[in-house]
Amino acid sequence: LAHDAMIQLYYHHFHRSHPILLPRRSLASSLCQHIPSYITHIMRYIGSHYYPQPGFSDTFQAPAYTALSAPNDGFKVQGLLLLAIIEHSYGHEETARKLLKDAIQLACHLDMINPSFARSHSRGSPILEESWRRTYWELVVVEGLVSAFGGGPILPSYKWINDEMQLPCDEKAYNFEQLKPPKPSATLSTLPEPDLHHISPFTYRILATQELRAVLQVTQCLDPDTELQTETLDARLVTSLMRLPSSLPEHDTATVDEMVFQTLMITYLSLIYLHHPHSTIRLASYHSATTLASSSSTSSCTRLRTLQSLPLSAHIPHHDSPASNTHSHKLLRAADLLSNLATLPSTVLSRTPFFTCALSIAAVVHVAALAGGPPSSLAIKYEGETGAGKEQSLKARIELGVGALQVLGRAWPLARRVRGEMVDMYR
Predict the structure, then answer these.
(1) pTM for this one?
(2) Where does the record place the Xylanolytic transcriptional activator regulatory domain (predicted)?
(3) Quick one: CA torsion of 88, 288, 278, 328, rounded to 10 degrees?
(4) What per-residue confidence (pLDDT) applies to 75?
């Protein structure tokens, strides 16, 4: 099984982004016999998207979706979660949300949100035990991302998120089956000071998602005066970036840990969502123009949620005020940093499919700044550059995003669709 070509593609490209299934090494162990056939079908289906032949994945689709009629257990939760990610990668937002909701509700029904579930269903294997915990935490992360990209929370409350669940171990320890003997481990409620204790990259990714949820709650708040909350969240987000471990992109020129990559991606997204409502850079003109120009709506991930919940007038600050210019500066800076992730080592093709929406949001910000951003706000961001230099800098960012979407589009239909929208918008 470990030598199956499509499964090899799954582990080479996808597993590092969403590492919930058993490590590849486990496929050669006795644990393999416990894996339902539909899980291997899903692995092949996902892997087939990276095969360089259009339509090749169609052959693997039907067997993968036999997971929908499978018995209710932890493996089905994994299957529903992975299928939800794939449906989102096709731009099938409602189907993705339904599958993700089903996965979360099944996890709650099975009591998977209880820390004891992983141990009692581990069959004596610490690897399988860790896989169940990772499945739970992946639900938390993916639900946060899907909620941010459109439609709001999957479930009406976050009561299913258990702060007492043991946090994931390091990726190397998991993938190389080098888990240490059981001992009291950190949870969200007992998380040690990150400056003094080692925290796994997966845990940083979870923390980033929790901050994203906090940002979305503030930006959807009906209270028009959220400046103090915004400043507090901004400080927390910047602090979280400072606390990331030294194995960051600037220190490692060979590879970038996917969990660290996603932590950066989610944090930059949070900064964009946080500062956009208070900035002088308006995205509404682009969206109204595309609505008039096209009979089909744009992809949800190219629309910032802050434009969807409140009247536009509630978000517009006093133009050219020091505060609004500062928010514009921070908004553009976050969009720059987000698009810069496409330049890091490791192929863009192997990044999480959610990078599609992240790139598109950064590009929308850059296009809005290029098309209608007030000169004063751009002057703060690109201080010292000429007018032509500012324009060229923004165009370079947009072209970087479009190029990265083209690479992601080799595997995922949503990336191809969004790239087309970006090209039309850029024109």
Answers:
(1) 0.90
(2) 76-177
(3) 90
(4) 99
